[in-house]
Specification:
A hairpin with a 4-residue loop joins strand 2 (75-77) and strand 3 (82-84). The chain contains eight helices and ten strands. Helix 1 packs across helix 8 (297-316) and helix 6 (216-230) runs parallel beside helix 7 (264-277). The protein is α/β, with parallel strands linked by helices and 318 residues long. The chain is 30% helix and 18% strand. The protein has a single domain (21-316), classed as Ureohydrolase domain (Arginase, Chain A), CATH 3.40.800.10. The strands form two sheets. It has an eight-stranded parallel sheet, sandwiched between helices. The protein has a two-stranded antiparallel sheet with strand order 2-3.
Length: 318
């Protein structure tokens, strides 16, 4: 205590300072990443077919994440009686954003892939902030030299279109591109519902290529344990979370909202169970578009689910 009765050092409230993810250290040198988890922004939204704006997703998620930046003693969860994200237990850095070249999908995606590869080369787990869902394509490409893994998708849309009017790398294509990879052993596509951007033949092809497709209603009928039982056990998992997998009542800030979506604890319990079932080796969270998020609930949800997920990945990692 100082002579004025205050703790020494700075209080550093959420609204003070610069907005790195969770106020974790910023590391702009991608050759010097030294962390357990590295956060990369992928502010690309040229792949959208309706409302643009997810290019501002990384910035919005980072700003919202400062709400949870009281990281002096980690995050105590009284339900689990565990402290997650303790500074002396887990190292997290924010490496900034991949450079986006306007109108150039190929170059922009290549820059995102370079960032993810740098994280993997450092032995860290990539956490990528989208951007539209097409940013998953370079994320998956970056794992070409890694061991095989199972892909778990939380989303309202199947995103399994092969090609539409010559477009193969938009936000309707990423799961098809992933399924084509020899090192992706299968897909669990969870939350898929209602009017879809993928026609019936796309669903048929997805199932033939190794997808297990479950809607929100099917998820609720099976329960978290039932859904987890459908996901191969003792595997490596890459997890891609489209924010429109959540219900727009809590996540309106997205380009293609779809009613009938998940609530917070449903997804958290699924992710928690997944970290106990195998090893999560990468994460992206996409399609947050802050301009449609007047209350800030979507960016807050994105930051909250990511921080909780990172904490559980680290705590439960085999």
């Amino acid at each position: 205590m100082s002579e004025h009765g205050y703790d020494s050092g700075r209080l550093n409230l959420p609204f003070v300072g610069l907005c790195s993810f969770g106020k974790y250290p910023y590391q702009p040198d991608w050759s010097a990443i030294d962390a357990d988890f590295a956060v990369l922004g992928a502010p690309f939204d040229f792949g959208t077919q309706f409302r643009a704006g997810a290019r501002f997703g990384p910035r919005g998620i980072r700003e919202a994440s400062t709400l949870f930046s009281f990281g002096h003693a980690g995050a105590y969860d009284h339900e689990d009686d565990l402290t997650y994200l303790a500074a002396d237990k887990v190292r997290i850095v924010d490496i900034g954003d991949a450079d986006i070249v306007h109108t150039d999908t190929v170059k922009s995606h290549a820059n995102i892939e370079t960032g993810v590869r740098a994280i993997l080369a450092a032995g860290a787990t990539p956490v990528v902030l989208g951007g539209d869902h097409s940013v998953n394509i370079p994320c998956i490409n970056a794992f070409s030299d890694e061991k095989p893994f199972h892909l778990v998708q939380i989303d309202a849309h199947l995103d399994f279109v092969d090609e539409r009017h010559g477009v193969k790398y938009g936000h309707g294509n990423p799961m098809r591109r992933a399924a084509e990879k020899s090192y992706v052993t299968g897909l669990s596509q969870i939350g898929i519902r209602n009017v879809s951007s993928t026609a019936k033949d796309g669903y048929d092809v997805a199932r033939r290529m190794g997808s297990d497709i479950q809607s929100v209603r099917q998820f609720r009928a099976l329960g978290v344990a039932g859904i987890l039982d459908r996901i191969p056990a003792d595997c490596r998992y890459y997890v891609t979370i489209d924010i429109d997998g959540f219900d727009p009542s809590i996540a309106p800030g997205t380009g293609t909202p779809s009613h009938g979506g998940f609530l917070y604890y449903e997804v958290l319990e699924l992710l928690d169970g997944l970290t106990k079932r195998g090893k999560v080796i990468g994460v992206d969270l996409v399609e947050v578009a802050p301009d449609y998020d007047q209350s800030g609930s979507t960016t807050t949800l994105a930051a909250q689910i990511l921080l909780n997920f990172i904490g559980r990945i680290h705590h439960n990692r085999p």
